[in-house]
Amino acid sequence: MGNMITAEFRKILTTRLWWALLIPAFIMALGVAWIWSAITTGISNDLVDEELIQQFDVPVDEISWSVIALVRGMNLASIFPMVFGALGLASELHRKTITTSFLTASSRPGLLAAKSITYALWGLIYGLIIAAGVSLGTLIGSDRNYLPDAKQWFLILLAGLFMCVLWTIFALGVGALIGSPVGTLVILLIYTLIVGPLGEIALFTTTGGSHAPGFMPNGSANGMTGSTASVLLFDQIQALILDRGGQVVDDDVREGFQQFISVVAGAHGAFSLWLSGLIFLAWTGIFYVTGMLRNQARDIT
Amino acid sequence: MHDGSGRIVVSNLTKSFGQVAAVQNLSFHVEPGSVTGFLGPNGAGKTTTLRMLLGLVRPTAGYSTINGQPFEKLGNPGRVVGAVLEAQGFHPSRSALNHLRVYAAAMGLPDQRAHEVVQLVGLGGAANRAAGGFSLGMKQRLALATALLGDPQVLVLDEPANGLDPEGIAWLRTFLRAFASSGRTVLISSHLLAEVEQTIDQVVIISRGQTMFYGMLDDLRKQQQSRVIVQPADPSALVAALQAEGITGIQPTPDGKVAVVDATIQQIGDIAAKAGLAIYGVQEEKADLEQLFFRLTSGQYAAPGAQMYGQPQGGYAMPYQQHQQQSGGFQYQQPIAQQPYQQQPHQPPVAQQPYQQTSPYQAPSPYQQPAPPSPYQPDPTANPTHNDTTGQGGNA
What we know:
The complex is a heterodimer. Chain A is mainly α.
């Protein structure tokens, strides 16, 4: 297995794709986080001056609004590890290098397992670079008082890392299932950039703000980071209100607020981190297992 | 684990793609120390058979083994069997050497081995060039280098001469003979008998997914039959005279001559002299091996004829026994467009010059004589983690 993982790493490192996707992933993570942190900073600064907000006695300028930038940046930049994963097996099938790969592997399941491990590790590498990008972008774009504390920051990045790994394996499975790199990329990009987000908004509004979008692959993936951010923000605001002698809000308010932040973070109707993670894990499992089964039985002609 | 015999066994192998029967009940075996030609026209099922042997295509029925085991049970198959297949891909931007390093790693071999095989196939000068810029011939050499990485005991090649220049083909011939003579096994497919005739000892000829001939090439050669073309003054009188002497294999030719298959020039001359018949010309025609091959395989795309397949006319070939038992439906048809005889009046029989290297290319074989069945011994001084010539890492 070690030999085959080494071979898989060599396959990746002897071509340009890994850095050709890693560089734009970093730039997009940085740029999106920068823009979103600048937007949240601007809005918050305006809100602080509003009399209405001041009457509520909520310290808007002490809340870590920039977590939204971290979430938006990671969610959008995660298309790069997804593309990377999509090409993992599909391009080998397309270029027919899979023939030699199967001829030199101890077994087909062995090769597919080695590929999965390798791509999971690469998903992690992409996740780390994207995490660095969003962190840098948020640092640049956000006012200091809106930055999350270390623990909040770390939790969101951790959820984002997990999401990047899952997206990579998810796409590897879709690529294995479809077998054509172009077909795989078109389907995945149209889904994650257009059909998924718009569909989730439509589903969210038509079902009266239900959790339905959170069951979708894209919705559950974005929900991992989005709901982490909304919980963190709610807890922070709750603590600030309590500090000032306020009361604990009831569950309805909590739910409503978290849904609102999820929408702002681009994760409509998301479940909690763990539920979203499990749902996306299940989606990944479905595509990964069917993709691998398809390749186990595929005639290489 | 495999038995290390170097033996290939194909037994009743059948593959259907939907309604299309690509391979039907094919059986043959290949012994170590020999080069076996696997011949048939395009679409006869050669590639599908080889891919089933290599575990790439699942047979509908039957089985195949290498060293007594099916491909998927060979453990580290690249160390047992190397394959050069059609449409075997290379990443266009990956260099030849990096391509070899990838698969050396997969087989657990040191990088040193990639350097060795790239030199062995004569690609040393292009080792660091991207495979996408290679000519077809260079790609074939790179595919061969990949097949040789694991120092395999068995070599399977599907149309390896495609794209090779004459020098490359001559080199490949020498190489394969040397490889087999060291006690290893070579199975090589081709749609042209002439292309591999000088390389092979044994031959399996298939057509429409079925075995047409299986045996030694020499046996196939022995089945060539000559015929004598006589130009008599009075054809009917000559025919009558020959028949009176018990010679029955007589056919008139379209240009008014008489073709005789079961008599020598001398016999015919004597009979004609005895009958007092004038003869203006006599010549012997020999069917060459390629014509024979064409006869064996020509039914593939022809419409079924009236004649059932059995012993081909004139006894030109001995059909594979097993096939005869089950192939009731095959329609053997005489080639219509092509005259199977060739004018060769002054040529000695082909069978008298076996395995002669007629190529002008006489360069010594670059193939280093390997220690026969012993697996490749990794060089203890070579460490894959310290042989990264690309500067890109590779063991991350």
